[in-house]
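Report of the visiting student (M.T.), summer placement. My assignment was to run the structure pipeline on a short list of targets and document each run. The first record concerns UDP-N-acetylenolpyruvoylglucosamine reductase.
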Amino acid sequence: MLKLNTLAVDASARYVIAITSVEELESALTFARTRGLEWFVIGAGSNLILASDFSGLIIHNQISGREILSDNGASVVLKAGAGEVWHDWVRYTLRQGLAGLENLSLIPGTVGAAPVQNIGAYGEEIANSLLSVQVYDCDRSEVRTLSAAECEFAYRDSLFKQQAGRFVILSVTFKLCRYGAPGGHYDFNLSYQPLADLTAKTPPNSPQDVSDIVCAIRREKLPDPQQIPNVGSFFKNPVIDVSHFERLHHEYPSMPHYPAQKGVKVAAGWLIDQLGWKGYRNALVGIHEQQALVLINHGGGRGADILALAQQVADSVFKQFEIQLEIEPVVLGGSSVPGHSSSRFEPGR
Ligand SMILES: Cc1cc2nc3c(=O)[nH]c(=O)nc-3n(C[C@H](O)[C@H](O)[C@H](O)COP(=O)(O)OP(=O)(O)OC[C@H]3O[C@@H](n4cnc5c(N)ncnc54)[C@H](O)[C@@H]3O)c2cc1C
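After the run finished, the structure tokens were exported:
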């Protein structure tokens, strides 16, 4: 599995099958079921921690395809196969002058995994432009279309995380705006401060302009997993209640915070940084020098090593701030996951 996860964990799986169609998916599921094997679907493995070897079947989703379903000039409905590379798909929409996905440029992974944790960056989430998701429902053994509302999107969460092992995403349908089309109207989302600062002097003229800026910020801030194995942000930004926040804010007036539906969201990276973890390393794994939120594999680190470090970080944050961090990537196998995490994925059976 070394090449199938961006954390470069050298775990093994008993079987790996690549699928390119729903028929191949059904064959793979039959293969697993007739042998009593657990199964687990992956895309690019960029949000995955292999905590142990896997004695079941890994289904590597490679269902491709891009299709324009309707176009009324101002808005366009288009569909992408689950195995398409996310950033290639974003670039394809930008080439057609379509707006909606520009803030989500350069996020690693596949289209099919994007709804699973409702990928988000720079003030946007896929939920804002997603129309529906075509899935294979393994409980009912049938292909279904789920509307955006049925996907139960929330911050880094969705029905697909809540009911892990039930749905395999086959394709995703988006509704995007044609930027500048007569009768159409679209406002760029520049709410993220560095994006606002960089566009203050020269406002963007196209979704491509915004994408270019997002890519430049990301390249500067985030390590390329090809060079430094990682899974991006390791912890979710915690939401704490207002009285807890007020106590902390009194003590740490510079603490970054954002309004949330139930309480106040605080920046996990800032909490970790306060405790001096940035740049920490042990023999195998560590924390990125510029990004306290990014755990990295220095080579030879196993999933258990990464999770042990994550536990140390989470414990220290809890001790200092009484905030329980929850990890963002999905954990396959192993026995302990830091925090009260919803990230442990039960494989399909
Ligand atoms: C450098 C870096 C930066 C990142 N930045 C961001 C960011 O800004 N925002 C963000 O939200 N994420 C970010 N991520 C995390 C990651 O890119 C996303 O979560 C991405 O959507 C994962 O895609 P994947 O194909 O690699 O999924 P995988 O890691 O292969 O799988 C992730 C989960 O999705 C499930 N899954 C995958 N494909 C399917 C399918 N077809 N059907 C059903 N379930 C499926 C898997 O079972 C697993 O539970 C970053 C990661 C890295 C390495």
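The longest strand covers residues 167-178. The helical segments are 22-34, 86-95, 159-162, 193-200, 207-221, 242-251, 268-274, 303-321. I thank the supervising group for their guidance throughout the placement.
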